[in-house]
Backbone:
């Protein structure tokens, strides 16, 4: 810490070079100390709050672990073998995949389109972004209150609106074929604003000169979009796809709050992976089995991310 | 029940005094702390609150805290809390949750005076005593029951030219066809009977109402060994198939009387969107409040081969790990007194189980409750088999039955319907085997 | 970006329709929160309340003690936010600006923990909190939310955008590493910190399942938990439920509206733009 300022600016002589090397070494030692002192406790927190419980859950997946029973035998891969002919689990896996595919594609396409359109009405953009962001900061519990009314088959606004176009009454949360769309719609509503903001930031970073040059070359708006804007947006799109995939594969809260059985307005029991994990772990007490489902969830998301990273690789 | 209760009240005076004696206890100022009670049915909270002043006199330094939750969340909370010894002090458990907490050794043995009452056939019907008894000892005191009954809309019955409630299952279906109403677009606007079409556990329970009357058995019967469970679907395959076909027939095609897109259950009934449905007594205060224009009739369950009402029983137990066990038991003693039981009936609509209490005054003022509280000869009160895997086995079996309801191709297809019943049976067996409670 | 008239018209139309889609449910709830019970039950419903009433808010805030719940939520959300800002910026700084063994691996491990949601591994966490005798405390409510994977990732992105030369210059001036972090890095990452802060606050505010299992007394309820419990119990009481919903949403909206500029700028500095 005793290096006077300015020294570094003058060309180093051999003597100075020696001193600089020792001080650099000392600096590096200091860095190591600093890294250890700061990252250590933080990593410890991650270890305790995230890594350990996750590893513990994975460990339990090899046991027949029942929280109220004292006998908890090791059963190897049996939990995993049973997953293969568990209809509920397979349905949940399929539903989650279908929901995620729809939700990710619709949310991100719509968000990108909106973000791009907003760039042509730059002055109104902040206002719109604020409106789109309202659902993002709306917690799920009040959001469910709202959407349950909207979806109500007899008194809901959605069926009321659709009936003007001659659409017959639909049980949005009651029909197994419809509920996935109902939940996709709620998710799009909830997530759209977040990605509009993220894309908006990316788009603002596209150099105006490039666009003007392309315009001078006679490129149409569409050509400018496809050949100038989108290639520059690749990293941010990849980021959004990964985040959105994780969020959607972990879907639980909207399903839980929308189908929670308030008397008189119960909904179809739409199964998703995290819901099955919750039910097996908390309601049926099969923590080991829930752990196995957890591992499958982890592997699914990891492989999806790997595929996405490969697909977006720079060619 | 009323007539018997007047008779027996004299006989059980001794037991009553044992409980009444609590008032003479001196205030216990040495005990202090917070006594936690968690409820999965919030509507009983006012009764606990009513008992607070009396309890405060006994324990001026004990604070009682009532937390109410949605039933599903209540179960989740208990699931993590009780095994780790962090549960509430007073456990208000349904008969289907009770075995799990008994098995895990979480419950305190009932003090001898209360145990004598809980085991007294003059105070509690043996059906309910059996529920709380293990190894010859009670581990809780039955408090109230949610007894099934048929609720029907008097005005809609009159409009359909029906003079009284259906007496048999066959009549029930016949009436429901007359009561169902369609709009101009052909959609049902009113269910003839609101069936339980969603939420698997409730679905199989309500299917079980039909099944019980038609067979005299429950789908899950208690085994010969205590704690064991038998699945009876295969024994009654033809009748079970018929019950399923009856449902499918009334959910699809020309005889359709209910639809998934209708408002269901108590809310549907309070809105006038359902002419009949099976439920428990809490519906009465609910409809009075939410559907003040509805004139409701309440009738015993319609009969078939058998005749009985299903009882969902709430049991009061004390957490073995609680530091306030004595205070918790004293609160349970208090809650047995007439005025709190009256309040329970009046505010929540759940029916107190004590036969040595007199509700004749209440019944005179609230005749709707007669069908729920009187027990005509031959009307059997039955309860769920004790079952540590209750949630799982009912949820998974219920899923099969509810999926079958949706399947229009089952209409008139006895073979396919039989296959669904067999599938339900085969879904239940491995779950019970896994839990170690299956009896062939 | 696109000045063509067609695009601009399309932009107005599409954005207006979607904005309606985004806010209509919210407007509906606000309207309901000010309605009398009679008006709520009207068929077909009125959109705006004819005789606005504050009765629903009074019932929720006063009779149902939501003021206390709001206070709890604030303590938890602010505690979680401060902790996440501190840990994320520090970890982000270290991962962005230092080379050390296993750096890549450690960062990957942190990222990987975001793939599984809290609901999936809540039981081991619960047992941990129980063994530490922390149940039903603010500490337990904040505990799983003192760190945030996304926060570390986000702050690393933000801090990577700060030129190395600035840090080097300070070092040569004799600054300690912690001084560099607290005076230079935090100062330059201010917008990013605000964006993350709002995000962390709203996540903690909206949390529901964890408080549900941890809390065992009413005085520790959060706004979300109180609302959920109230709604399940009184599911036909639309007025107070709506008032509760409005109360739980509005603070988030205010924060976002006030800090919007910083948030956008903060996200812009993450280098996500490529």
Residues:
């Amino acid at each position: 810490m005793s290096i006077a300022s300015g020294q570094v600016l003058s060309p180093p002589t051999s003597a100075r070079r020696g001193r600089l090397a020792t001080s650099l070494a000392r600096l590096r030692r200091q860095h190591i100390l600093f890294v250890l002192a700061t990252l250590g406790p933080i990593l410890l927190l991650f270890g305790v709050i995230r890594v350990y419980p996750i590893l513990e859950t994975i460990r339990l997946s090899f046991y027949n672990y029942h929280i109220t029973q004292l006998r908890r035998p090791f059963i190897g891969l049996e939990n995993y073998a049973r997953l293969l002919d568990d209809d509920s689990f397979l349905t949940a896996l399929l539903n989650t995949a279908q929901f995620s595919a729809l939700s990710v594609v619709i949310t991100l396409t719509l968000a990108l389109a909106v973000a791009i359109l907003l760039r042509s009405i730059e002055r109104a953009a902040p206002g719109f972004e604020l409106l789109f962001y309202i659902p993002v900061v709306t917690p799920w519990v009040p959001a469910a209150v709202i959407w349950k009314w909207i979806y109500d088959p007899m008194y809901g606004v959605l069926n009321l609106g659709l009936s003007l176009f001659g659409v017959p009454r639909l049980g949005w949360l009651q029909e197994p074929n419809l509920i996935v769309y109902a939940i996709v719609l709620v998710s799009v509503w909830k997530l759209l604003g977040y990605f509009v903001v993220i894309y908006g930031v990316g788009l603002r970073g596209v150099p105006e000169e490039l666009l003007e040059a392309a315009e001078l070359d006679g490129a149409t708006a569409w050509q400018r979009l496809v050949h100038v804007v989108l290639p520059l947006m690749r990293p941010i799109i990849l980021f959004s796809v990964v985040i959105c995939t994780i969020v959607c594969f972990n879907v639980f809260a909207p399903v839980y709050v929308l189908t929670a059985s308030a008397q008189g307005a119960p909904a179809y029991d739409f199964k998703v992976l995290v819901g099955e994990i919750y039910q097996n772990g908390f309601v049926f007490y099969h923590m080991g089995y829930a752990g196995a489902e957890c591992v499958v969830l982890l592997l699914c998301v990891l492989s999806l991310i790997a595929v996405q990273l490969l697909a977006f690789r720079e060619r | 029940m009323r007539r018997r209760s007047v008779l027996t009240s004299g006989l059980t005076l001794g037991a009553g005094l044992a409980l009444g004696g609590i008032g003479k206890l001196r205030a216990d100022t040495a005990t202090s702390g917070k006594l936690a009670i968690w409820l999965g049915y919030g509507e009983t909270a006012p009764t606990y609150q009513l008992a607070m002043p009396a309890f405060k006199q006994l324990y001026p330094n004990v604070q009682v805290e009532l937390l109410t939750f949605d039933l599903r969340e209540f179960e989740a909370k208990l699931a993590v809390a009780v095994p780790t010894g962090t549960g509430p002090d007073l456990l208000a458990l349904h008969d289907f949750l009770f075995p799990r907490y008994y098995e895990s050794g979480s419950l305190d043995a009932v003090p001898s005076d209360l145990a004598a009452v809980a085991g007294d056939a003059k105070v509690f019907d043996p059906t309910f005593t059996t529920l709380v008894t293990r190894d010859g000892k009670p581990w809780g005191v039955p408090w109230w029951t949610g007894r099934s009954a048929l609720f029907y809309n008097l005005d809609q019955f009159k409009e359909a030219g029906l003079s009284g409630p259906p007496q048999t299952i066959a009549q029930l279906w016949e009436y429901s066809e007359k009561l169902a109403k369609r709009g101009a677009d052909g959609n049902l606007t009113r269910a003839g009977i609101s069936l339980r079409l969603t939420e698997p556990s409730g679905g199989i329970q309500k299917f079980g109402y039909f099944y019980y009357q038609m067979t005299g058995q429950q789908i899950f019967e208690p085994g010969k060994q205590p704690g064991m469970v038998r699945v009876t679907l295969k024994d009654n395959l033809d009748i079970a198939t018929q019950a399923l076909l009856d449902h499918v027939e009334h959910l699809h095609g020309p005889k359709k009387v209910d639809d998934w897109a209708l408002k269901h259950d108590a809310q549907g009934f309070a809105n006038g969107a359902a002419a009949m449905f099976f439920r428990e007594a809490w519906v009465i205060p609910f409809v009075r409040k939410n559907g003040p224009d509805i004139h409701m009739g309440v009738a015993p369950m319609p009969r078939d081969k058998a005749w009985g009402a299903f009882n969902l029983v709430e049991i009061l137990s004390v957490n073995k790990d609680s530091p306030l066990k004595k205070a918790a038991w004293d609160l349970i003693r208090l809650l047995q007194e007439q005025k709190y039981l009256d309040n329970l009936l009046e505010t929540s609509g759940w029916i107190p189980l004590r036969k040595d209490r007199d509700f004749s005054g209440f019944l005179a003022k609230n005749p709707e409750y007669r069908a729920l509280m009187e027990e005509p000869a031959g009307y059997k009160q039955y309860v769920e088999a004790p079952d540590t895997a209750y949630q799982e086995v009912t949820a998974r079996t219920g899923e099969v039955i509810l999926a079958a309801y949706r399947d229009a191709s089952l209409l008139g297809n006895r073979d396919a319907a039989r296959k669904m019943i067999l599938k339900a049976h085969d879904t239940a067996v491995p779950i019970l085997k896994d839990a170690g409670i299956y009896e062939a | 970006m696109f000045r063509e008239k067609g695009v601009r018209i399309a932009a107005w139309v599409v954005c207006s329709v979607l904005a309606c889609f985004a806010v209509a449910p919210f407007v509906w709830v606000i309207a309901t929160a000010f309605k009398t019970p009679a008006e709520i039950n009207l068929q077909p419903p009125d959109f705006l309340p004819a005789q606005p009433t504050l009765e629903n808010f009074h019932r929720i805030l006063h009779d149902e003690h939501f003021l206390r719940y709001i206070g709890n939520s604030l303590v938890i959300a602010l505690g979680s936010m401060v902790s996440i800002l501190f840990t994320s910026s520090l970890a982000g700084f270290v991962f962005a600006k230092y080379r050390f063994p296993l750096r890549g691996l450690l960062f990957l491990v942190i990222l990987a923990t975001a793939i599984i949601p809290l609901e999936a591994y809540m039981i081991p966490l619960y047992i941990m909190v129980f063994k530490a005798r922390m149940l039903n405390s603010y500490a337990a409510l904040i505990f799983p939310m003192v760190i945030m994977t996304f926060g570390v990732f986000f702050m690393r992105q933000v801090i990577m955008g700060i030129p190395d030369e600035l840090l080097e210059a300070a070092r040569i001036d004799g600054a300690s590493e912690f001084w560099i972090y607290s005076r230079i890095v935090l100062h330059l990452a201010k917008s990013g910190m605000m964006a993350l802060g709002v995000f962390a606050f709203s996540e903690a505010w909206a949390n529901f399942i964890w408080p549900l299992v941890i809390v065992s007394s009413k005085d520790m309820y959060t706004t979300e938990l109180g609302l959920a419990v109230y709604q399940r119990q009184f599911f036909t009481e639309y007025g107070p439920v709506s008032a509760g919903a409005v109360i739980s949403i509005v603070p988030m909206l205010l924060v976002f509206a006030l800090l919007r500029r910083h948030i956008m700028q903060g996200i812009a500095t993450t280098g996500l733009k490529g």
Notes: Chain C touches chain B at residues 122-123, 126-127, 130, 135, 212-213, 216-218, 228-229, 232-233, 236 (CB under 8 Å).
